[in-house]
Protein: Dolichol phosphate-mannose biosynthesis regulatory protein
Organism: Acrasis kona
Amino acid sequence: MAVNSTKKVGTYGLILFFMMWIYYTIWVLIIPLFDEDIFAVQLFPPREYAILIISFCGWALIVLLSGFIGMVVIQNSFHKPFTPERKDY
């Protein structure tokens, strides 16, 4: 039951990701080719927001990954003390 539920969540997440990717691609690459008085162009926000959104998402990804890696490193350092191996030559 849990595997099927996880599969559904993954499928919905993948569908949502591709819908957002298609919307962003149309917004950044295709909409600038049309005149601004067309109705479809008015459905999209200004292109400056595209740069801001991607910049914020990249910044958030770096912060979250750095925080996660730091948390894992700190937790592992408390569980196993460092004992160097002694090698006599």
The chain has two domains: 1-43, 45-80. The chain has a mean pLDDT of 87. The radius of gyration is 23 Å. Residues 29 and 60 are 24 Å apart (CA to CA).
